[in-house]
Amino acid sequence: MAGQVADVTDTTFDTEVLKSDTPVLVDFWAPWCGPCKMLAPTVEAIATDYAGKLRVVKVNTDESRQSAMNYRIEGIPTLLLFKGGQPVERVVGVLKKDQLAAKIDKHLA
């Protein structure tokens, strides 16, 4: 489905993110995090705009602590862009859709 933001857990992270043929934007978030809620519509818009070119997934850091520790997520929201199983871009905090798109575009070109 276009623009779908999938939930990924510690159990599915390897398959869904690291082994993906498509670049994956991972949104590390938690339900209690106000800035995460502010960023959510931007992340969903990116998922729609980049459907077919980029997968967008969310990792709840309360439930999937191992993934967050593996990538040294210290503050949320943190977005990591993975390409070929490697993190190639890190964004911490809330930013506008065009700012996020610019960071993604340089890796999809």
From TrEMBL:
Residues 1-109 form the Thioredoxin domain. The active site is at 33 (nucleophile), 36 (nucleophile). The keyword Transport applies. SUPFAM superfamilies: Thioredoxin-like. Disulfide bonds join 33-36. One of its GO terms (molecular function) is protein-disulfide reductase activity. Belongs to the thioredoxin family. This is Thioredoxin. It comes from Caulifigura coniformis. The lineage of its organism: Bacteria, Pseudomonadati, Planctomycetota, Planctomycetia, Planctomycetales. The gene is trxA_1.
